[in-house]
Amino acid sequence: MLLLVGLGNPGAEYVGTRHNIGFELLDAVAEQLGWCRRGEFDQVAKSKFSGLCLDGLAGGEKVLLLKPLTFMNRSGQSVQQACAFYQLAPSDILVGLDDLALACGRIRLRGGGSSGGHNGLKDIERALASEQYPRLRLGIDPAPPRVAGRDYVLGRFTADQRQAVDGALRRAAQAAICWMESGVQAAMNRFNAENVEP
User: Fold this and answer.
1) pLDDT tens digit at each of 198 positions of the chain
2) 0.90 surpassed by pTM
3) Candidate list 19, 67, 106, 135, residue with the active-site label
4) SS3 sequence, the chain?
5) How many CB atoms lie within 10 A of CB 149?
6) Cα gap 65→5, rounded to integer Å
7) Within 10 Å of residue 148's Cβ, how many Cβ atoms?
8) Cβ(77)–Cβ(50) under 8 Å?
9) Is 19 a catalytic residue?
10) Which residues contact residue 99 at a Cβ distance below 8 angstroms, ignoring those fewer than 6 apart?
11) CA distances from 35 to 6, 65, 74, 119, 147 (A)
């Protein structure tokens, strides 16, 4: 059993914001796996583990896609519930999230590491008592000068950013599926190496 978590905030006011790119990643993965059509994840998902879930098979492995609905800073609550229910190890989890340090259009997959100041990751680390779980970061560009990081991540992408992000989401979904089928090292080798500016 594997768990793919996409981080974001619930509610219509957050749809399409930079901080919700993790939710968009799950939409893209579910579509590529043929589990639902584009934009249908929230309608067909089950309400469980303080979030929205879809499950199925990928590469012969049962996989759960989870969008925590606890708000970003409490993401660990939802992740911990799912991990406890399925008795998952941190290495069985992949977390998709936004990253201010990466340019739009870039993705980076790692097998573990620090939160990098991301509040969603901080709470997951607290809940799991571990930093050793894979994470897939999607670039959203650094905040412009004199714009607070919090305001920037809760804003929406510019048209140019959106174009770059759409391409990155397709590649990130492929990377997540590669992780499901072949493991984190194979996905890192392939998708970090292919990670070029759009």
Assistant:
1) 999 999 999 999 999 999 999 999 999 999 999 999 988 999 999 999 999 999 999 988 899 999 999 999 999 999 999 999 999 999 999 999 999 999 999 999 999 988 888 999 999 999 999 999 999 999 999 999 999 998 999 999 999 999 999 999 999 999 999 999 999 999 999 999 765 544
2) yes
3) 19
4) CEEEEECCCCCHHHCCEHHHHHHHHHHHHHHHCCCCCCCCHHHHCEEECCEEEEEEEECCEEEEEEEECCCHHHHHHHHHHHHHHHCCCHHHEEEEEEECCCCCCCEEEECCCCCCCCHHHHHHHHHHCCCCCCEEEEECCCCCCCCCHHHHHCCECCHHHHHHHHHHHHHHHHHHHHHHHHCHHHHHHHHCCCCCCC
5) 11
6) 6
7) 9
8) yes
9) yes
10) 108, 116, 118, 137, 138, 139, 140
11) 16, 11, 27, 30, 39
Total number of residues shown for the chain? 198
